[in-house]
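Consider the tokenized backbone below.
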């Protein structure tokens, strides 16, 4: 039997996504409060002749299996730094919606990185792994760290946050994805229009909400519901107007808060407890406004090795 390592990595929801103006490098400065939730991809690596990616799960057909896959890029980056070949088969068992604003690709990048490090015995420090994650993408460091964190810069400069209780969530998965860059561009366009053309330069510095950080720390779902915000929501709804009906269906069924998850089109509903979650999930299913519904909770741990088989 070949040696193998399997890593489990969570999805995220942004409980606050404050978006600043466009920077000279094209990115936006953010105050991005990530919460990891219990939907997971599992990334398994085994030695192979050459780098190869396979994927299973309901959305597997939408996942690129070439060198553009974030898991492949992670393996190549680690191998290059340690002067070795990325001779590995990476299998992604995908449960996180693809292009759904839940950092599914980022999760696979962080998962592959941790898995290859363990398989190859690279012994990379946490700092080096976080460094590679930040090179791979803005959301990748959080997938490694998990639980909850404030992301500054373009989201990659992380400060871990304390979470004082379990938050219950329902996610409504939409048909098809939304491109994250397209949603940021639409956000800029809407700001330009509402600023009468004087626009994006006037956007205030994004700052985390003290009330929101406090609600996370104390585990107070009602207070968190009152504080959640997503500056990309108007842009996501502008590009996908049908999301308004999904948000209304969840709110009408008693969700404490309804918001677009990150750049969407997945929508997130904060609920009081698991029973309330099932009620909101039933209402969303019968509303006909989404493709599927998931009930889960957070905070969830970051990328974790869950299986390691060594050769006999
Ligand atoms: P985020 O929330 O970080 O903005 P997302 O969850 O909206 O991201 P992803 O699921 O990461 O979106 O997919 C975005 C695009 O990234 C996909 O359309 C796909 O082409 C590409 N991609 C690269 N690697 C992966 C991967 N391992 N899994 C899914 N998509 C990937």
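A designed sequence for it:
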């Amino acid at each position: 039997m070949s040696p193998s390592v399997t890593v489990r990595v969570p999805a995220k929801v942004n409980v606050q996504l404050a978006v600043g103006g466009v920077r000279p490098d094209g990115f936006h400065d953010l105050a991005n409060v990530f919460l990891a939730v219990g939907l997971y991809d599992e990334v398994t690596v085994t030695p192979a002749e050459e780098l190869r990616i396979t994927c299973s799960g309901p959305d597997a057909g939408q996942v690129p299996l070439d060198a553009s896959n974030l898991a492949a890029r992670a393996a190549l980056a680690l191998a290059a730094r340690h002067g070795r070949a990325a001779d590995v088969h990476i299998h992604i068992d995908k449960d996180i919606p693809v292009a759904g604003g839940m950092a599914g690709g980022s999760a696979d990048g962080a998962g592959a990185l941790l898995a290859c490090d363990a398989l190859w015995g690279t012994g990379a420090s946490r700092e080096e792994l976080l460094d590679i994650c930040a090179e791979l993408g803005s959301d990748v460091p959080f997938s490694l760290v998990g639980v909850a964190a404030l992301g500054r810069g373009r989201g990659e400069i992380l400060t871990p946050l304390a979470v004082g209780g379990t938050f219950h969530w329902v996610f409504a998965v939409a048909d098809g994805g939304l491109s994250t860059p397209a949603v940021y561009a639409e956000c800029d366009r809407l700001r330009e229009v509402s600023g009468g053309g004087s626009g994006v330069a006037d956007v205030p510095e994004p700052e985390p909400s003290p009330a929101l950080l406090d609600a996370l720390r104390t585990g107070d779902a009602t207070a968190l519901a009152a504080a959640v915000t997503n500056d990309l929501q108007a842009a996501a709804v502008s590009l996908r107007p049908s999301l308004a009906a999904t948000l209304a269906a969840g709110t009408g069924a008693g969700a404490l808060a309804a918001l677009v998850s990150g750049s969407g089109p997945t929508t997130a509903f904060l609920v009081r407890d698991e029973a309330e979650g099932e009620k909101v999930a039933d209402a969303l299913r019968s509303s006909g406004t989404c493709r599927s519904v998931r009930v889960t909770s957070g905070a969830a741990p970051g990328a974790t090795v869950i299986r390691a088989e060594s050769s006999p």
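The domain at 167-298 is CATH 3.30.70.890 (Alpha-Beta Plaits).
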